[in-house]
C-alpha cells in the first residue's frame, strides 16, 4: 500500500507540473502534504516535516549554488567567456572550430548554470556560424552537449551539488569521477553524433546574432581561464591532497577548510570580483547589481531543490523510505542502475533534470546511506546521468533549442532529444565501469 501511495504521489506531481502547469515548488509542497496524510504522519507533525525538509536541504547547498551563480554571471558578462572562445578558436583553427566550441562549452559550463550558459553561449555559436557559413546544428549541438554534461554531472551545479549532500558523498571525489565520465559523454553526444546532422536545415534568427565586446575591452586570457576554473582547481587539488595525506595536523585541517565547497566558492567569488570586476574597470556597485541578477536567475532552482527536500523528509518521517528500500533490494537490480532508471523515468515524465535527480535521490537516499557497498559518489553521477534522459516537449531546454535554432519539433527531437539521451546512456555505462575499479 505504501508503494502505491508513493506511485500515486509521483504521478500527481507529474500531472501538477506538466499538465496543470503548477509551479514545481508549490507542487512539491502540495504533494508532500498529501503524502504525509496518506502515509500516516500525524496531522500536527506534517508542517514540521515540511519545514525541516526545506531547511536541511537548502542549508547544505544554498551558499554553494548562489556563489556559483555569481561567479558564472561575472564570467559571462565580463567578456571572459568570449576571451576563452577567441583563444581556443585561434588554437584549433577553422577546421576544428567545432572542437574549440566544445571546449568552450565545457570550461564555461563548469561555473555557469545551464539556462544562463545556454542563453549566453548560443550567440557565440551563431557568430561562428555566420562568420564561417557553417551548419548551425552541426556546430552548435556539441557545445550544448558540453553544457548539458556539466549541468548533470559536475558540482557546483544545483542537482549534483544537492545529491552530494543527500548521499554524504565527497564533493572533490565526485567532481573527479564526473570529469572522467564527461569526456566520453561529450565526445559521443557532441562531435560524433553531430556528424549525422550536417544536412539538418536551420536558419537561426537574426535576433540572436552575437554582439561581441571589442578585443580591447576583454580581460586577459590567463585571467579568464583562471577565474572560470578556480572552483574546479581548488576542489580537485584539496581532494587529491586529502586523499593522500591522512595526517591530523594544522596544515591538514587548513587544506580541509579551504577545500570545503562553500569556502571554495567564497574564495572564487572574491577572486572573480577583483579579476573580472574592479580590475576591468567596473565599480563595486555595478558588480553588486550583477550579483543580484545572478540571485534572481537561480532563485527558482533553489526553490525546486527545497521542494524536493520537503518531499524527501516526508518520506523519511513516514518510514516508507525503508519499505521502498527493501522492495527495491528485492528487485535485485544493481543500485546504481536502479538510481539511473528512476531518475530517467521521472525526467521523461516531468521534463526537469533537477526535479528528476532530486526526486530519485530522495527515494534512493536511505539505501545509499545504509549500504556501505554503494559508492555515494557514483550514485550522484548515476542519478545525474538518468536526469538527462530524453528531453522532449515538457522540458524548457527543448523549446529553447528549438526556438533559438529555428527548428521543427521533429528535427528538435532528432537532434536535441537524441543528444541528451546519448549523454544519459554513456553516463550510466561509464558509472558501471568505474564501479568495477573504485
TrEMBL record:
Pfam families documented for this protein: GntP_permease
Chief localisation class: membrane
Annotated GO CC locations: plasma membrane
Membrane topology, record value: Multi-pass membrane protein
TM helices/strands, residue ranges: 30-46, 58-76, 96-129, 136-154, 174-197, 218-242, 254-277, 289-311, 337-362, 374-393, 413-434
GO molecular-function terms, A-Z: gluconate transmembrane transporter activity
Subcellular localization(s) per the UniProt record: Cell membrane
Keyword set includes Chloroplast: no
Keywords: Cell membrane, Membrane, Transmembrane, Transmembrane helix, Transport
InterPro entries: Glcn_transporter
Family (UniProt): Belongs to the GntP permease family.
Matches recorded under PANTHER family: GNT FAMILY GLUCONATE TRANSPORTER, HIGH-AFFINITY GLUCONATE TRANSPORTER
Name of this chain's protein: Gluconate transporter
Organism of derivation: Mucilaginibacter ginsenosidivorans
Upper classification of the organism: Bacteria, Pseudomonadati, Bacteroidota, Sphingobacteriia, Sphingobacteriales
